Amino acid sequence: MAKKNILVIEDNHAILDVITLILESEAFNVNGLNKGADFIKHVQEFNPDVIIMDIMLPDVDGRVLLKELKETEATNHIPVLMISARYNASNYSLDGIEADDFMAKPFNIDELMDKIYALLRK
């Protein structure tokens, strides 16, 4: 079975590094971004099976990126797990477009992996 690709968009470098190490230890191909610039282009080039996205990014609200992703025909099928320290599950949508799942920071590693595997099964 081919390795699955996971794109992580997180502006906190320490959190990005931890998530990357965890996912790579589970044999995923991981690509990390720390801002939203050229997001759709990057998604189309990397072709992720799941996206883990922080809501609060330095250059754009993650919900705006989610909306762009879900409104783009070539990428709207990709499941998204939104993560945030300042939001709750009721605040992870924009204009009715919602992520596939939500997780508050700080998060439990086992819960993170459970959510990723659930999204991959969709």
UniProtKB/TrEMBL annotation:
Biological process, per Gene Ontology: phosphorelay signal transduction system
Record PTM 4-aspartylphosphate, positions in chain: 54
Family annotation (InterPro entries): Bact_response_regulator, CheY-like_superfamily, Sig_transdc_resp-reg_receiver
Keyword Acetylation: no
Boundaries of every Response regulatory domain copy: 5-120
Membrane spanning residue stretches: none
Pfam families reported in the protein's UniProt record: Response_reg (PF00072)
Keywords recorded for this protein, A-Z: Phosphoprotein
SMART domains in the record: REC
Keyword Phosphoprotein belongs to the record: yes
PANTHER family referenced in this protein's UniProt entry, alphabetically: RESPONSE REGULATORY DOMAIN-CONTAINING PROTEIN, STRESS RESPONSE REGULATOR PROTEIN 1
Protein name: Response regulator transcription factor
